[in-house]
Amino acid sequence: MADYIEIPQANLRNIPIFSDEPNEDLLQEIKQHVRETREPHSWRGHSHTKPEQGALVVYCDEFDVPAPDTVPRVAPCPCCNPHYPQYKNKGKIAWFPDESVIRLIGPQCFKAINEGAHQAALVELRRKQKVRSELATIRRHGPSIDALLKMVDEVSPIAAALDVFLQDLNRALDNELALPLWRVARGGILSVSEERNVPYRKPDGVIEVRREVVPVHFASIAGYGMFDRSGPIAAQKKLGPLRSGLADISRRLIEVGVPERLTDAERTDFAEKLPRARVLLAEALSNAREKQEFLTSDAIETLGRWGRHPTAPYRFSMERKRGAVVLSSASQRSSSPVTVAIGSDAAKALPELPPINEE
């Protein structure tokens, strides 16, 4: 008969060898078997027998049976459909303590046998999955905490120096030079004006040419975050609390020895904070690196050439001299050039984000 599934003889009887709830190693063995064979019913410990009415169950974990998206059902279920495809996703590794057996069953199939036990087992499974997920997150991120702390200590003075330069530069551009780079160099794109012949259609349909002034791309620069009004990196404000939180987590993990000894509240808190800390540090690092490009690329030289171009929106001078940027503009308030100091830490190499433990 089509779709009929032959069950191994060894699995057609109870295999009562599981007096204790399956541990992580056994759960991984089961899921690996399902991934490799696509046959939950042929796993060595699976009892392909129907539970008795009113039986109690513990859902230990879930699994998906690999199959094309067009195939809705793959595996048979001993609870309701023992020889035909019944389910594919969210299968349950179900432990029956009264029988000391494990059955691999469909996601909702046991509900008809004991709805109350099914619902209670489902609630407990979600709790266990949450615990496993949180512990896995802590194990992934925990080994890199010391590296993150070191990284915060390295990034903070560089970011602080970049922020000081950013504030001084924008103060000079706005107050002393009357040079709105943030508006005329949006996205780091520099344009000049050029007069060109532009074809146009007259009312009578005749095509003629006229002279028009059009914007022309001059250059693009990196590091435009220094003047685009995106704001400072705010290293101390953002990274200070982050460092303190990471240090607290590190001390507590050393104190308990293994993450399993954390309280429920601590485990949940750490699992949320560790990935978040990494994201915040990555954002600060990216922001610092983008702004630092203003100093480490040819942005200053390019802006200086643009400012000297006869049809640039504003005429100005910008050049780097030793540890400073010297600026002047045709519309500045004073007669002397403006000097913006570059802090000694501003152009130091930024570290790379350390990898996390993927095991």
Structure, explained:
The protein folds into two domains: 9-113, no CATH class; 140-341, no CATH class. Helix content is 40%, strand content 17%. The protein has helices spanning 24-37, 115-141, 145-176, 181-184, 235-256, 264-296, 299-308; strands spanning 58-63, 91-96, 101-105, 189-201, 207-220, 316-321, 324-329, 338-341. The model has no long low-confidence stretch (mean pLDDT 94). Strand 7 and strand 8 form a beta hairpin. It has 359 residues and is α+β, with helices and mostly antiparallel strands. The chain is built from seven helices and eight strands. The longest helix has 33 residues, at 264-296. A three-stranded antiparallel beta sheet has the order 1-2-3. It has a three-stranded antiparallel beta sheet with strand order 6-7-8.
Write the layout of secondary structure elements.
Elements: H1 24-37, E1 58-63, E2 91-96, E3 101-105, H2 115-141, H3 145-176, H4 181-184, E4 189-201, E5 207-220, H5 235-256, H6 264-296, H7 299-308, E6 316-321, E7 324-329, E8 338-341
Antiparallel strand pairs: 1-2, 2-3, 4-5, 6-7, 7-8
Helix content: 25-40%
Separation, N- and C-terminal Cα atoms = 45 Å
Number of strands: 8
Class by alpha and beta content: alpha+beta
Quick overview:
This protein has 359 residues and is of the alpha+beta class.
